[in-house]
Request: fold
Amino acid sequence: MKKKIALVTGGNRGIGLAIVAGLARTNEFKVLLGSRSLEKGRAAAALLEGDIVPVELDLADRGLLEQQMEAILAEHGTIDVLINNGAIMREGTVLEVSAEAFEESLRVNSVAAFDLIRLVAPGMEAGGYGRIVNVSSGWGSFNEGLGGPIAYSVSKATLNAITMVSARDLPACIKINTMCPGWVRTEMGGMNAERSPEEGADTAIWLASLPDDGPTGGTFRDRQPIEW
Ligand code: NDP
Reply:
């Protein structure tokens, strides 16, 4: 059987790296490990087993992102599975955070996902198959009180909204969902967090492989739907 092509943004460390490893382990995917530094991506991929190709992808600059995606699509063809994982967390309250950091957070954490969805969805539609997973956070949930720093929480709530509306706009063959990995031991989560990167990656890997009658437009944690 021909392998599906999966692209994971921010795949060089943390939860993204665990998603790359988990997808590659199934042997069903060629996994494109997206990283803003190709050098870091190559170093990360060298530590893993399986069909993994490092690709350069910087979420902070739309012009560059479009150029890089054009090159990736020309080399690898249709992306069947997109995991929007890469993100930043800028600290500070509404009065402390700089306007630049707020805008950068929206750009990297939500608008880049919007851009990538628009770049890969036409190919998915033509191929009659697509899975998109947006890695969000409980801190982006109104239901859970938008508990993080403002730039991060607002960017993740925006990502959830992009997911919900995209599910309505995209053809039924494309399933798009968002998920919260829980509190995970990474550079972002810190070493006191409860979960390993592999545990944090589990729901994303499950959503990446949903069957044709699987859900779309939902938000999940531990493979269960949650309110946001
Ligand atoms: P890390 O900080 O460990 O990793 C973030 C990744 O995003 C890195 O690969 C980083 O690349 C990449 N990244 C940042 N900026 C850009 C950019 N401009 N272009 C491309 N890549 C970029 O975070 P986690 O692994 O913990 O988080 C992964 C996802 O899980 C995020 O979406 C996060 O919001 C979410 N999450 C994490 C939680 C946790 O407890 N850890 C809790 C809830 C949600 P580089 O190495 O170059 O900086």
Summary: The mean pLDDT is 98.
